[in-house]
């Protein structure tokens, strides 16, 4: 039958001739090997066993520099790394000073944050191209914690009024103790940075770098766009240079805008003009760099140029004294001494530190993988966790705040010829030169210029909004995740917003797994191809039914609880009109007692059954008075081929076999196996044979471990493919005997 159409050959046709295989027959013919089960002690001994080769491999994995530095091609890579390092170093200096404003600490600590993390990443990192240092989103998250734990109100002191002969303290006038405030704020920032590093190292050692996969691209896109919005709002006050209160938490952006609008009449015109000019010039030149990137050998370092010119203008015109412009003021030479984190603060910053650790790592590893794919090398996610964790611990002990990477800075390092982290170490040397010698030259620089540089670098994150219409056309669920995460992060704050976005994303997964798609498959004549009958006209389905459940990996463990699994099975048959389902009861949970409606308790109804409201009750003759009444619950074993003692419409079952395609199922738990087994037995009870096709070896082993098979449900119901199951059914039907037709040597050609 299956070879009848083979007279018409086509050059692209292929023909297969093999036996019909059930899993049992296939295992026998090809001699399935039993898996070796090792005890926990054996596995630990094998994992902890140490050989010279294993030790060298582990050391190189922990210290990647030992692997790549001896192979470093000096002549080919060093010139490009030097040019890239010098250019990136200048950008690092300016971005470090600017992003310190987001972290609410003095600008000099931004230089430290652009220097110390690079030293350790050079030794431990696996990415050759990312530029390690401050990132606007993590800086803002640090700044929100700093402002919460060290607000200006905690450092107010009476004003000292100096008279002719004495100094008088006026308790009615208060001023902020700037030195005490800065000391406490950098202590909070450093403590949080060390804690972030500890979280990252712990996750790296536990090999949980895969957790970043739960931060999908839509979620990260919505979160970073919301973070860019918060950064923009936070820098408005610096651009217009008006006094406002510090706000954090829910609707903080609204309170900030209200404060700015109330004090807008106090705007400093010099700062406003400088900030707006900086935004316009930096964005315009960056557009030129992007448009002519193939013609310009090195991108124009516009941030450096603008900063140098702005510092010179501010110094010459004395904008601070003449116009009241807000400037950097103190940018001392040299490094601050190392300091120990404040252990007492850990309990207050635990949650914020963990979310910052996850965000910083997620952004960094995403950027690293983009350039790794572009230049054909691999990035180890777990080692990146350790590298960034150690970098943050080391930097936090030297007055730095959280380090990650910035896409714009990394793009500069790669586009200017950077080939390895040698470019990174050279950029660190440039930052060190600024710290040791050139820092005081930046003291006249207006803070509004730094704020303008920050805002101009947000363009890339704001442009992610253009992805929303594309996401809506491609996948509406992903689009909703993007929008929900963005709105939650804007309204609730970055920490709570990220958590809300994760919960919403996981909720969409749960909802989608609760409503799997079900398709009835038909056979394309003379082939082993089975497709959805709704999609194709020339497919057929004879006296058997094929069910394919297109589900997610955790379908069987998420839906096979209580009545749900059985309801899905029965409802699928109802919709497809396989047979008259009215006399059946919906099992609970998985137990279906064949029950009949009655009057006056003639035929008992099992209390475990849930009555199907769709069928009409039929009248049953009453018994004579005095007749004995049956017990309240009786399990009725029905022989569907014999006459029933009561007037019940017996359904006509139009199928004799059901094939379930399990190729899309990859996980089975205890509840799922129990429910599936009960459903299979229900079909066997009414004379419908059930076969399961497409189970891989791991799924079969899982079924065996869960005691899925017994005398009634045997391993003979498992087949390698849907087509094997269909051919077996046809062979069994044609032979008309109860013996296994595969016991004979059968060979069909199709």
From TrEMBL:
Pfam families: STAS (PF01740), Sulfate_transp (PF00916). InterPro entries: S04_transporter_CS, SLC26A/SulP_dom, SLC26A/SulP_fam, STAS_dom, STAS_dom_sf. Keywords: Membrane, Transmembrane, Transmembrane helix. Coiled coil: none annotated. Its main location: membrane. It is found in: Membrane. One of its GO terms (cellular component) is membrane. Residues 658-729 form the STAS domain. GO terms for molecular function: secondary active sulfate transmembrane transporter activity. The chain crosses the membrane at residues 97-124, 131-150, 186-212, 219-244, 264-285, 349-373, 385-408, 420-442, 448-472, 479-504. It is a multi-pass membrane protein. It comes from the Eukaryota. This is Solute carrier family 26 member 4. It comes from Cyprinus carpio.
């Amino acid at each position: 039958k299956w070879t009848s159409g083979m007279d018409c050959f086509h050059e692209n046709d292929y023909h297969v001739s093999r036996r019909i295989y059930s899993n049992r027959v296939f295992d026998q013919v090809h001699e399935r090997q039993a898996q070796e089960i090792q005890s926990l002690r054996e596995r630990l001994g094998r994992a902890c066993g140490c050989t010279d080769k294993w030790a060298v491999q582990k050391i190189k994995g922990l210290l990647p520099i030992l692997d790549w530095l001896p192979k470093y091609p000096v002549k080919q890579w060093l010139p490009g790394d030097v040019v890239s390092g010098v250019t990136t170093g200048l950008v690092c200096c300016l971005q470090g000073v600017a992003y310190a404003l987001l972290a609410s600490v003095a600008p000099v600590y931004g230089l430290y944050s652009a220097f110390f993390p690079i030293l350790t990443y050079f030794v431990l990192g696996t990415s050759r191209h990312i530029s390690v240092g401050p990132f606007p989103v993590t800086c803002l998250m640090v700044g929100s914690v700093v402002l919460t734990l060290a607000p200006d109100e905690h450092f107010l002191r009476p004003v000292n009024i100096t008279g002719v002969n004495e100094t008088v303290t006026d308790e009615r006038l208060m001023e902020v103790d700037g030195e005490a405030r800065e000391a406490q704020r950098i202590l909070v920032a450093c403590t949080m940075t060390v804690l972030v590093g500890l979280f990252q190292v712990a996750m790296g050692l536990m090999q949980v770098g895969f957790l970043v996969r739960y931060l999908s691209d839509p979620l990260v896109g919505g979160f970073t766009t919301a973070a860019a919005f918060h950064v923009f709002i936070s820098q408005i006050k610096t651009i217009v240079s008006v006094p406002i209160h510090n706000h954090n938490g829910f609707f903080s952006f609204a309170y900030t805008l209200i404060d700015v609008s109330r004090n807008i009449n106090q705007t400093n015109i010099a700062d406003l003009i400088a900030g707006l000019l900086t935004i316009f010039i930096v964005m315009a030149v960056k557009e030129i760099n992007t448009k002519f990137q193939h013609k310009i050998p090195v991108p124009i370092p516009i941030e450096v140029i603008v900063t140098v010119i702005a510092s010179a203008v501010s110094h010459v015109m004395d904008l601070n004294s003449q116009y009241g412009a807000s400037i950097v003021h103190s940018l001392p030479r040299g490094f601050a001494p190392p300091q120990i984190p404040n252990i007492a603060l850990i309990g207050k910053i635990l949650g914020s530190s963990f979310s910052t650790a996850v965000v910083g790592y997620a952004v960094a590893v995403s950027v690293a993988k983009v350039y790794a794919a572009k230049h054909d090398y691999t990035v180890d996610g777990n080692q990146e966790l350790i590298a960034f964790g150690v970098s943050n611990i080391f930097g936090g002990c030297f007055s730095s705040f959280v380090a990650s990477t910035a896409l714009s800075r990394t793009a500069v390092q790669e586009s200017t010829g950077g080939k390895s982290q040698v470019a990174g170490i050279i950029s660190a040397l440039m930052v060190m030169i600024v710290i040791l010698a050139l820092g005081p030259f930046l003291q006249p620089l207006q803070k509004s210029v730094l704020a303008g540089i920050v805002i101009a670098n947000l363009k890339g994150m704001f442009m992610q909004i253009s992805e929303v219409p594309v996401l809506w056309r491609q996948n509406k669920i992903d689009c909703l995740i993007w929008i929900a995460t963005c709105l939650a992060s804007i309204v609730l704050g970055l920490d709570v917003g990220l958590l809300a976005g994760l919960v919403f994303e996981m909720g969409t997964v749960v909802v989608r797994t609760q409503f799997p798609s079900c398709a009835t498959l038909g056979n394309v004549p003379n082939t082993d191809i089975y497709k959805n009958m709704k999609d194709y006209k020339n497919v057929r389905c004879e006296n058997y039914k094929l069910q394919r459940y297109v589900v997610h990996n955790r379908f069987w463990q998420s839906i096979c609880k209580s009545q749900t699994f059985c309801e899905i099975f029965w409802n699928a048959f109802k919709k497809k009109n396989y047979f008259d389902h009215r006399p059946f009861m919906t099992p609970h949970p998985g137990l279906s007692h064949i029950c009949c409606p009655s009057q006056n308790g003639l035929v008992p109804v099992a209390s475990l059954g849930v009555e199907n409201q769709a069928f009409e009750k039929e009248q049953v003759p009453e018994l004579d008075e005095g007749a004995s009444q049956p017990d309240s619950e009786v399990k009725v074993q029905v022989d569907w081929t014999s006459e029933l003692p009561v007037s019940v419409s017996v359904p006509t079952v139009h199928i004799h076999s059901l094939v379930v395609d399990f190729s899309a199922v990859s996980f089975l738990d205890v509840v799922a196996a129990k429910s599936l087994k009960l459903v299979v037995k229900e079909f066997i009870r009414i004379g419908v044979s059930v076969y399961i096709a497409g189970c891989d070896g791991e799924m079969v082993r899982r079924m065996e471990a869960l005691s899925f098979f017994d005398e009634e449900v045997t391993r003979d119901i498992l087949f390698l493919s849907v087509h094997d199951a269909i051919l077996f059914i046809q062979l069994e039907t044609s032979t008309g005997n109860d013996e296994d037709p595969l016991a004979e040597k059968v060979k069909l050609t199709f």
